[in-house]
Amino acid sequence: MEAPAAQRRVAVSQQDRRRLVNAFVLNEDWLNLAEQLNIPRQSARNVIVKFERTGRVEAEKRGGNKPKALSDEMIEALVGFVADTPAATLQDMRRHLMQAFPDWQACTIQTISRALDGQLITVKLLRTIPNAWNADRIKHERREFAKWLMTEGMGKLLVFCDEMGCNVWTARTQGRAAEGVRAVRIVANQRGRNVTMCLAVSPMRGLVYWKIVRGGMTRELFAEFFAELAALVDEPFCLLHDNARAHWDPPAMGEEQEYRPLPPYSPFLNMTERAIAAVKASLKRSLSRVELQRQIGDRNAAAALGITLQEHRARILERELEDCMSAVTQLHCEAWHRESLRYVPRCIAMEDIVA
């Protein structure tokens, strides 16, 4: 219940406190001044009495002197510990602070969590990268490639290529459900064979060529893919690819064709990675349909076509994958290439990049 107006505490500003004290010192009617300032008479008396006793005009700090559970030094140490150990739990952080500050009275993990929120440190999906990701040799290769890209590469038709594998269980790993209930997804009993999609994209031509193969990518299949791509492109081009095992042996090249590998551990320079992400996102949405999962496990439908259930699953997956290729457009390719070019200055400066 709200207190009556007469009992409610009124905070007197510093300016009004000085005006009351000045009126008191000059033997003026400070009670009348308090009434004009809408200050309760008792509050005005408290200001004057305090001035007579201590000579102070300013209001004292209210409340106790309980210190913060985490000092600025502790928060700084906490941020550094999280930067060095991103997988640490709140209990690990609490133990670290207890070891670093022996005289510290330990606080709750909720307090530590709030302190991290105040430093804009949030919980994220933890990624794993090799320790050679930002090695000096790798950064040197990135710099040389970035220089080539901004000089010789500017006048060439650049075609980036990469592969992605998938099966009928390819789906999002996050979903929604009522509180206390697990989010589950009903799928076919078997995931079937893996299917590999190999695609080539260009910032100038968009989706240049794509091909679906059963199983994984091999050197022979990649050489076949390149030959079909070269026959399709009617002008000189430079094929850029990652360092997958299937790409180690360069296929037969024409005089007007160039074959250049990307620096190791540099997927951010390959615009095909973003194209693959778009295709895979579309495929996940398609395969998440309940009716499609029923078709994938329909033995009667496979028998009616005179094929095995495994072949039936593979055909459905290939059909859905073909429909998802519309996710790669010319405008998207231009935007993905611009996104890759944002890393070029950092590569030239040989900065550590985690992307």
From TrEMBL:
Species name for this entry? Macrostomum lignano
Q: Name one GO molecular function term.
A: nucleic acid binding
Record domain Tc1-like transposase DDE: where: 158-285
- InterPro entries in the record, alphabetically? Homeodomain-like_sf (IPR009057), RNaseH_sf (IPR036397), Tc1-like_DDE_dom (IPR038717)
Q: What is this protein called?
A: Tc1-like transposase DDE domain-containing protein
Pfam short name (any one): DDE_3
